[in-house]
């Protein structure tokens, strides 16, 4: 499981011409699911995400989590994060979780965040859709977390 998080001032997801999710200051989180990922793995990584200190405190240091900062979270499924890029010039997806297994795990992750991140808004992308993601990266601050 891989999470690419970006601290943003705002972000939104559109499908076609319709904006389906929008957040203000917080985290845009891309989620890549791999074959061996399970709910327990997801829960541990999401708990880490909510506590990851990427927001600045009064002294200007990254000491606050998204929960501390009362920031929003936008979770977007990102199949390509599970790619094997170790060889050649074309990514391989043999490690990626199948759509049939990944969709319920993505839903679990979104529900878990909605239940456990109570200091800000939680929004999601649309699994399997061709999405357009717009963001203003704050910093820029971007981290890759993996389980």
UniProtKB/TrEMBL annotation:
Catalyzed reactions per annotation: a D-aminoacyl-tRNA + H2O = a tRNA + a D-alpha-amino acid + H(+); glycyl-tRNA(Ala) + H2O = tRNA(Ala) + glycine + H(+)
EC code: 3.1.1.96, 3.1.1.-
Record motif Gly-cisPro motif, important for rejection of L-amino acids, residues: 139-140
Repeat in keyword set: no
GO cellular component terms, A-Z: cytoplasm
Name of one Pfam family that matches: Tyr_Deacylase
Keyword vocabulary terms for this entry: Cytoplasm, Hydrolase, RNA-binding, tRNA-binding
Localization annotation: Cytoplasm
SUPFAM superfamilies registered for this protein in UniProt: DTD-like
Similarity-based family: Belongs to the DTD family.
Its job: An aminoacyl-tRNA editing enzyme that deacylates mischarged D-aminoacyl-tRNAs. Also deacylates mischarged glycyl-tRNA(Ala), protecting cells against glycine mischarging by AlaRS. Acts via tRNA-based rather than protein-based catalysis; rejects L-amino acids rather than detecting D-amino acids in the active site. By recycling D-aminoacyl-tRNA to D-amino acids and free tRNA molecules, this enzyme counteracts the toxicity associated with the formation of D-aminoacyl-tRNA entities in vivo and helps enforce protein L-homochirality.
Protein name, as recorded: D-aminoacyl-tRNA deacylase
Source organism of this protein record: Chromatocurvus halotolerans
Lineage start: Bacteria, Pseudomonadati, Pseudomonadota, Gammaproteobacteria, Cellvibrionales
Name of encoding gene: dtd
């Amino acid at each position: 499981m891989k999470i690419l998080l970006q601290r943003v001032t705002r972000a939104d997801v559109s499908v076609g011409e319709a904006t389906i999710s929008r957040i203000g200051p917080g985290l845009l989180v891309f989620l890549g699911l791999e074959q061996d990922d399970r709910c327990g793995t997801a829960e541990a990584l999401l708990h880490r995400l909510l506590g990851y200190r990427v927001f600045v405190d009064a002294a200007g240091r990254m000491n606050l989590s998204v929960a501390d900062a009362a920031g929003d979270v936008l979770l977007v499924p990102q199949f390509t994060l599970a790619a094997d890029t170790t060889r050649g010039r074309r990514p391989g997806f043999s490690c990626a979780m199948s759509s049939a297994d990944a969709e319920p795990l993505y839903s679990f992750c979104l529900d878990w965040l909605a239940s456990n991140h109570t200091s800000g808004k939680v929004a999601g992308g649309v699994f399997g859709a061709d999405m357009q993601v717009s963001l203003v990266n704050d910093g820029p601050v971007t981290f890759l977390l993996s389980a």
